[in-house]
Amino acid sequence: MGRIDWRPGNMLYPLPAVLVSVADSQGRPNALTIAWAGTVCSDPPMVSISVRPERYSYHCIEETGEFVINLTTRELAYATDYCGVKSGRDVDKFSALHLTAYPSSKVKAPQIAQSPVSLECRVKQTLPLGSHTMFVAEVVSVSVDEKYLDEANRFHLDQADPIVYSHGNYYGLGELIGKFGYSVERKGRDR
Ligand SMILES: Cc1cc2nc3c(=O)[nH]c(=O)nc-3n(C[C@H](O)[C@H](O)[C@H](O)COP(=O)(O)O)c2cc1C
Predict the structure, then answer these.
(1) Taking the model in full, what pTM does it have?
(2) Domains of the chain: which residue ranges?
(3) Banded pLDDT at 187 (limits 50, 70, 90)
(4) How far is the CA of 191 from the centre of ligand 1 (A)?
(5) What is the 7 CA–ligand 1 centroid distance (Å)?
(6) Quick one: CATH architecture of 18-184?
(7) pLDDT by residue (tens digit) across 9-19?
(8) In sequence order, what E strands does 24-162 have?
(9) For a substitution probing ligand 1, which of 20, 34, 68, 132 has the most ligand atoms within 8 Å of its CB?
């Protein structure tokens, strides 16, 4: 038994596969699936998405400087895949998938109403990297589906059944293993 070296490639998995919604210059909505997305700063809250310039949505983002990241769920898995294989050049994905374009509060790109969490983003930097161009953006507003809020106003993302993308496959989340800081939590009650 040993380990073998592969040629360099992207194997940082699992990841969220998100639905990025955009509007073209006429305000028509489109959405594409993005796996090369990440959180890059806490304060100000910033994210990145990497998009190939040949995507139809690329020009919408470049022209408007705005997009919305919509988290995906088991219920949105089919739409997540479809939006990643069909282009807005050829098909109106919102109507084909019965997705609801919900108005954003700070940007012109719409949210996807069926998503539990939508991050409204405004581009701050555009970095051409090679195959993909990275848009580094500030999160200017966050909207959540209130059906996942409890009486104490706590948000339960797990109830939305989020999905992840790993090496070509979509998965649901597995069992809870621990919570933030559990490795250093004191066991039992001591003073
Ligand atoms: C799971 C998955 C992840 C994807 N991730 C990316 C990505 O990170 N960047 C990208 O440019 N395209 C990505 N794609 C491909 C685009 O979503 C796809 O080319 C889409 O049809 C582009 O839509 P548009 O032409 O309407 O903009 C991904 C596709 C799938 C299925």
Answers:
(1) 0.96
(2) 18-184
(3) confident
(4) 53
(5) 23
(6) Roll (2.30)
(7) 999 999 999 99
(8) 29-34, 37-41, 46-51, 66-70, 101-102, 111-112, 117-128, 133-144
(9) 34
